[in-house]
Amino acid sequence: MSAAHERSVMVVGDRFEEFLTHPGTIGVSAMLEFLRIGAGDGPPKITVGQGLTGEQLAELDKFAETGRCVLSTQDRVPQPVERSVTHKVYEKNVLIGDLERVGEGRYRTPLVLDERVEVLEDHLTGLHIPAVTLLEAARQTWTAVTERYLIEPEPKSRFVISHVNSTFLNFVFPIPAQLEYRLRSKEQGPVGQVIAFTVEIQQTGRISARFEAEIRVIPERFAEKQEAMAARQTLRDETTPRVPTGV
């Protein structure tokens, strides 16, 4: 690979094999190997796409800091947000970066897709990122915004989805993308709060997907009690003999 070029090269995860057939793209493993060797006549100009693991992002970030490569459109290599605010256990399943407040009730975060994520590891067809992966990224966005900006850490809460309306407008490809959260309403209900919002996924200046949703934020002690009661009632309904109709 020649390091001397005016246009940047798009670095994406190795699993996006079909996308990597397009000119101007390179798999992350090949790029990191190139940077480790230090070949070429100058630092390559790169844009960080999707599919990189946390370890690969960190290594690429070090190369950028030391001048071994030049970032094209980003201030720095994006890093995933902390797991706790997304309600995930494993770092590979975190799909968003750190949050930025961009206005009253408005927040933005980059899509930071690890190719090993649970909603992608068994479903990758064609060139684009599957819809179910985008939905999970939106869920993590509204969860992180709620945790960090809209509620107090104590008492502990549970989030219950009331409804989600999804609209998919354009394919999302494994290149930089952002999610924007807009708060529509936040009201106190009989138990906990009711929060309505819109999350949009944007790529190359276009809206690719939109999720309009509402969640209830319920104190954990009440949520556990309600769930246990519902489980017992459902079990009784399923195991109680039914009287045949029409007899």
TrEMBL record:
It comes from the Bacteria. Residues 87-216 form the A-factor biosynthesis hotdog domain. This is A-factor biosynthesis hotdog domain-containing protein. It comes from Glycomyces niveus.
